[in-house]
Protein 1
Amino acid sequence: LGVPKDQLIRLISSDDLNASEETVYKAVMMWINHDKRRRKRAMRELMELVRFPFMDKLFFLKTVQNNEAIRKCCQDIVTETLTYQHFPEEVRSPRTHPRS
């Protein structure tokens, strides 16, 4: 939780990261919530690196989509993920590229 933002970015942006996207999301949220006052500004930048389309659909709907902070800062990412879940061939972004 004390890791610098740049180091977290390097870790979660890696195609070689061996973790589920649910785990990546939870780790980012824990990092932000550890010092919410300072770190909430980084939410958008960090959430752009989570590959939401590869999450379990129910987890995404119950946990991510229902998170008010995510809806406020990242509505386009939520919309992208919902679109990908229904029409995967229609959405291309860095988040729709699976990790190795």
Protein 2
Amino acid sequence: KEGRVLKIQSSQEEESLVQKSAPILPPRIAIVFGLLNIAPGLGTLLAAQTLLCGKSCSFESRLNGYIIGILAACIQFCASPVLIGWFWSIMHGVYLIRKSNEAQANKQLRKLSKRKTLE
């Protein structure tokens, strides 16, 4: 048998539709929205509104992200009596924070690499 070599092309995980709709926010604002998701769907709803104010998401179209974010917030709220919506809301709040922190770290890495190329 011959050995096979596998190459890792990307270490980035695949985002779900709802995760793609999460806006890229400054980390402090993401923390506020994440905490607001303790009330099922509230942080998700407010975060979706930022897409109308110019923030970006993983979708090419902010409108797609906005619509999916609003639907996700409504489903989180409606499913909260059976606890599924509450858990989903909390996990989405955590994802908002994580996505914002990753975006900030990537921005800092780009700045550092740009400085090094200029030197």
Protein 3
Amino acid sequence: PQSTSRIPMLGLLLTVGVRAWSHPVTARLSPAPLLRMAINNELTSAEVCPYLDESQANFASDKPESSLILGTTNFYKQGLQMVSQFAQNAGLRPMGTGLPDCLGLKLSNEAVYAAERQRERTGGRVDAHPVSRALYDLGCLFLDNLFDGRPIARFWFLETVARIPYFSYTSVLHLYESFGWWRVPGLRKVHAAEEWNELHHLLIMEALGGNLLWSDRFFGYHAAFAYYWFLVGVYLFSPAVAYQFMELLEAHAVDTYGTFVKTNRERLSQLPPPRVATSYYTSGDMYYFDEFQMREPGSRRPPCDNLLDVFTNICQDEQEHVKTMRACQDYARVGRVVTSPHLGRTLPIEEELKRKLWEQWAGEVNENCALEAGEDL
């Protein structure tokens, strides 16, 4: 098949092993009641959301704990879920009928490859190091086989891994500062904003049920751990290659999300957005949202009225990450400094808010700290 053509022998092995591990045989799942109501426009309250919330995350604790407590708690919790998944795969326990299968969303590996080839034919090919390209092809092969027919779980895995480079980059930059070799706080701030964006992509996928299988979390977290240390080593020897490798992955993300939106446009337009998506894209402080983008602050304020808007926004975010990674490569090669888009710029609304806050503060000072007649400072 097309999805195993990159490395045929490895493709065969992965197909046999990985699909047997993570693809239980199940009947077609029916939509969950809340999602059916959402599609039929029967949800009248803004407080009703058919998705998961952050309180249902699969973590060991809800407060800071010692590594010993976190490790043992997580081992016990994940162990129970591992046994549960094995029992379901063996037919000893009934399969669930909820998220993300009930969303009815699809993604074709062949369509993603077609989009990638089209991008590369039209001048969008990333001129990556041969080793980087080989690792990239191997990673794509792994994704195609592990998540075939499961797009939301695939996106969760992608976003789990997509955050890691920014952790690696900032770790090395902190090390350089600790040694007194180099200090570049502006670049660290841009990477922090990029990670914040990828985190919200991850939270959206978790709200859609992308991390509910124990096997997906097992592969995702172990891949993230290995990827972190791999990129730390690469960045220590060549920041340009480290940024280039990330550009490869971000370009693949654009192809994948773009294909997904085209394939599921009608279905996505019928589904409501998760709360975490509306919070990130339409409300609150948008400073970090502007910070990772190579454009004027405030020039992009996307809508978030349905799940189609959400995935369109994510695809556009990934395009911005591609631009930022290219700029970082220029920084590493020719010294063209990557700076905050907010540097030296203020929006009119920010100036109005600052003026209003200053007037409020001045009024409080005049009211509470005014001197009486005859008093001295």
